[in-house]
Each structure stands twice: as structure tokens, then as C-alpha cells.
Give the backbone structure.
Amino acid sequence: MSGALDGLRVVELAGERTAFAGKLLADMGADVIVVEPPGGDATRRCGPFVDDEPGTERSLYWWYYNTSKRGITLDLETERGRELLEALLARSDVLLEGEDPGRLARLGIDRDRLQQVNDQLVMTSITPFGRSGPRSGAPATDLTLLAGAGPVWSCGYDDHSLPPVRGGGNQAFHTGAHWAAMATLVALLARPELGRGQHIDVNLHAASNVSTEAGSYHYLAAGEVVQRQTGRHASSTPTPPAQIQCADGRWLNTGIGFRTPAEFAALCEWLETERLDDRFEAMDALRAAAARESIDMFAARSDPELAALLAAGREALAFLAAHLGAYEMFVGAQGRGMPMGIIYAPEEALSDPHHVARGFPVEVFHEDLGRSVVYPGAPYRFSATPWRLVSRAPHLGEHAAEVLGALGVSAEELAQLREREIS
């Protein structure tokens, strides 16, 4: 399969901020060359490690974020390292970098210089607070970005004596990476009309802030502060619980409730199919909701009759769950257009039959281990532009000969670079 981005060359300066953006482009077909410093990027030393044995080629963190990429090392603190980077960028479409503001300029690799090297180059910078402004040089981690931008405030439990919860998986970096990937592709589409590449400035704090859903605009528009709730959207007004325990003891997120007569009709059909309709006491209320022309959830605050119908929908789900296992509930709901999900531990998600049927688990062969390893697969599926995981993450300096050799680097110099990597 050819990818949607075949023919696109991206040079990525390795780091936490850029890794996922590079992966998104690489797994869609771009030739992404990740450039590490001598000795390797720091994320190679992030655990966990395969078989719990640390090593620069054994980090699962490095493996996941660098699939489908090629890898070289360059010492950008040396003149020769910078020369080779410029030579590579002269033949590339995109530079993806997440260096602290000012570092590249100090090295003489600023935007003005790169425009001279290749005026078609799209330069995408990912930094905590943008490349300019009063906070541009402030230190940050994924945790502090999520906390400062707002998402953490909205995540947690109904019991507010417990602290907020940070979602796992570097969500601030991931959010910024999606903005970076999309903006980069837009800049590439605009390049023929503009006749040049553009500079994309991704502010991780801002990217996280605009992902707070109701949190930011509730405060800005109504002066209201949302409060976190267990398993459901944060809200300035408490909403009914949305998690239910199923017959097998597992828990299910049921979403925000039923909002249309069609959804109530599907719920009635579900109870009838399971032969539970005669045993559910509020069946008449469900049928009355299904027969309405429309349902206004917000009107339920002042309409007791409508509130009773909505409550009957929640009671019906709890009734179904008391008779069905979590997976039966999930399949039954999804098949009827009701967005619900089982609460899984991370390690359970890959073996879920729905994920397996969708092709989410992907096996990648690691020749150095002599076995395949299961990876999380595509974050999305497109009908005409297939995603594919081409290869495992590169070993340290693995592609130096083919990448730098194409720039005219001699075998002797390649050997010297390799020696520096090992040392």
C-alpha cells in the first residue's frame, strides 16, 4: 500500500514535543528522518523497556513514537553537523522541531537562514508557549501544560476532596502534535500558490486550552467555572451519573444520555429484543418519549414530565446492564447508535474483539529480538488513504549510510560519525 503522503520528506529533530507529529506523518507515508544527537535522544532511556531490560534500543516509548521513520545522528553543536543538516533540509519539504526558543537561532539555523537554503521548506516549531511572548522561555512538562491550560481541572471524580486527574499518555504533546500535523499539511497545500514555505508556530499551552470543551467558554461567556465529574463532561451544573455496573461486574460509560425520540425508540427495541420489556416498570415512559416530536434536554430543568422521561432512559440502561455483561452492553449500544464504552485497563484494550476486528493491534517484527511485538495501530481509518505502520523505530544512527551517503558523505566520515554514536 502506498500512503497518502508518499513523496513527502520530513526532517524531525528528535524530542518529546515532535515525536507524535512525526509519527502521524510517517505512518501516513511521509519519509520522516528523525535526527538525534550523538548518543541518542533522551526518550530512548524512557521506560518501560522490553522484557524489563533497559537499553537504548529497548525503550517501548521510543519504539511507539518512532515507527515508520528513518534515523540518523548529527551533532548540531558542530559546524559540520549544521552543514549536513542544511544539506538535508535543502532536499526536504518540512522541518519539524521542538527545540527551546532561541537554540536554533543561536546555532545559526533560524528561519531566515533556512529560507536561503530552501525557500520551499515548511518549518513547524512546537514549543510550550510559542516562540515569542512573555512566557516563551518558561520551562514546562506535559503535566504542567495540561494543568495550566485547563484540561486537568475538568478531569477527575465527583468527590472533590480528591485532586484532579491528569490523563495519561502525554496528552498536551499529542494535542499539539495534531495541530502541527494538520497545519503542516495546510502549509504544503498552500505552497504552490504562495511560491514558498511557511513557518508554523504551535503553542502547546494554547492547543491544550482550546481542547477544554465547555471549560473555557463557560467561563468566558457566562462567568461559570465547570466542575469535574466521574466519567462525564465537566459542568457548571451537576449532571446525573453516567457509569453503570454490568452483570459481570464490569463498568460501562453510558455517555450523556438520550436526546432524541429515535434513541428512545432504539432503547425500546433493545429491551424487547432481550425480552425484558415486560419486566421494566417504566416501559410506558420510554414509549412516550419515543413518540414525541422532539426532546429538549435543557427544558427538563423546568419540565418535570420531560425530566421523568429522561430519568426513565437512564433507569432502562441500568436495568439492561443488570442482565447483560459489559461487552454485550457495548455491542448492543453501538449497534443501535448509542455511544458507550467499556472501562478497560490499558492492557485489555488491544485484545478487545471490536479493536481486533477493526485491525487496531498491529504486529511489528523486531529482527534483533527474533520475534514480533504487538503495537497500537491506526488512530483513524480513511477509505482512500490507507494508514500503515511500515517499520519498527530506527536503531541509533541506523540509516546514516543511506541518508548521509546520498549527501556525499564519505565512508570514512560515516565511520567517524558511527564511532561518535557509540562513544
The longest strand covers residues 31-36. The longest helix spans residues 171-194. The domain at 9-145+168-208+357-422 is CATH 3.40.50.10540 (Rossmann fold). DSSP finds 17 helices and 13 strands in the chain.
